[in-house]
Amino acid sequence: MKRIVGSNSVLLKDANKIRAELRKTAVENIYDWMDNSSIQNQLSKMADKEYKLNGCEQALSIIENMDTEQLRKYLRERIQDDSAFGLQILKGE
Questions:
Q1: What does the domain layout of the chain look like in residue ranges?
Q2: Do 21 and 46 contact (CB within 8 A), yes or no?
Q3: How many CB atoms lie within 10 A of CB 42?
Q4: Neighbouring residues of 63: CB distance < 8 A, sequence distance ≥ 6
Q5: CA distance 33 to 1
Q6: 49: pLDDT confidence band, cut at 50, 70 and 90?
Q7: Is the pLDDT of residue 61 over 80?
Q8: CA atoms of 43 and 36, how far apart (whole Å)
């Protein structure tokens, strides 16, 4: 299941719940789910919902517990790796 869920596995951990949710709308055979764009879109929506319900609070808690140097290191790496994030910093957002 982790190969199908990919990076969303941080938020989507219950394989039975994921499978049941995908089966509600997926027209594809379960063996065709890997690398399927409609399945990936549905997983992204599920992960976004889970992030808004629980993940955001968890991420904020991690940030709150970082010391200043750790936080700066994280931000530097994020700015180097994510141009959209760096542009938000430049815009003052």
A1: 2-91
A2: yes
A3: 18
A4: 71
A5: 10
A6: very high
A7: yes
A8: 11
For residue range 14-45, list pLDDT tens digits in order: 999 999 999 998 877 888 888 889 999 999 99
> Would the pTM of this model clear 0.85, i.e. be above it?
no
Whether the Cβ atoms of residue 33 and residue 26 lie closer than 8 Å to each other: yes
**Which is it for the CA torsion 80, 85, 88, 92, positive or negative?**
negative
Q: How far apart are CA 30 and CA 28, in angstroms?
A: 6
Among the listed residues 75, 67, 5, the one whose alpha carbon sits nearest the alpha carbon of residue 34 = 5
Q: Rounded to whole angstroms, how far apart are CA atoms 28 and 24?
A: 11
Q: Identify whether the C-beta of residue 1 lies closer than 8 Å to the C-beta of residue 18.
A: yes
